[in-house]
Amino acid sequence: MRLTDFLAPAEVIVPLPHETLASAAQALVGRLVASGAIENAEKLERRVTDVRAENVAVMGDRAFLLHLRTDAARDLRAAVGIAARPVVRKLADGEIQCARIVVLVVSPARHAARFLQLVRAFARVTGDPDVVDSILQVRDAEALVAHPAFAVELPEELIVRDLMTERCRTTRADVPLTEAARDMMRAGVGALPVVDDASQVIGMLSERELMRHLLTTQVLGGSRRPPAPGTAGRKTVRDVMTRQVLCVAPEQPVAEVAALMTNKDVERVPVVREGRLVGFLTRGDIVRKLIGP
């Protein structure tokens, strides 16, 4: 399948007359609604108005790529706008981002795999400065849809093995908690799988578990009572780790795993084969692969 299979002239705005990303996105929603691709227009309009940072990829100063999985969409569709002047997005910290191309991709949950492929394809197209320069020369919707850049085949479906980190840091249940926490900080990682002697995953120690532990101790509790003698360093990873760990297999489709991670609000997952740890996958790994070159 090609990008053009999900894009029609009626869902393209050239020129895009809006000055802000929010108003440009609402205009693209209007085109998708008019084409019949949207089940619940009001719900999608709210999503676009309050779009989260993780749903917007900024391709340098070339394009904004908004990608939303939502039951407001009846089908997997894309809308594109080309502005004569840069569209502006102002961040909370005052930073200004500008781009002339705005892409909106929407999909119901059942098309998770194709959704990721479509987002990845648009990211590759808008990530190439030379291709973007030629796209900016088009004068109408028909010419944009007919542009050779949008005739590209969608990339093959990714599986977890394509993205995972194979040699990941781990810890053991009997390691002192302070030692494991320092290891996390030194390595700059947000979690450590906890494994036994056979490399079987038995738990996970993450910043979430550490924070929960700190909130129940004097470190953040505001208590002035000194700790009981000899208790400060007794805690081990086993005392704090979570034993409820979502694990995935190397051969699982990334789209399926991404949906699981989103639905379960999980930042990272161990990758196991027959119970043994063989890798680690994070949301950042997925986003970097989809949006990167």
Describe the protein's architecture and organization.
By secondary structure, the protein is α/β, with parallel strands linked by helices. The protein has two domains: 3-154, 3-Layer(aba) Sandwich (Mannitol-specific EII, Chain A); 161-216 and 235-291, CBS-domain. The chain has twelve helices and nine strands. The chain has helices at residues 21-34, 41-49, 112-126, 129-135, 141-145, 160-163, 177-187, 207-215, 218-221, 237-240, 254-264, 283-291, and strands spanning 12-16, 56-59, 63-69, 77-90, 96-107, 191-195, 201-206, 268-273, 276-282. A hairpin with a 5-residue loop joins β6 (191-195) and β7. The radius of gyration is 23 Å and the shape is elongated. The chain starts with 11 loop residues before the first strand and ends with a helix.
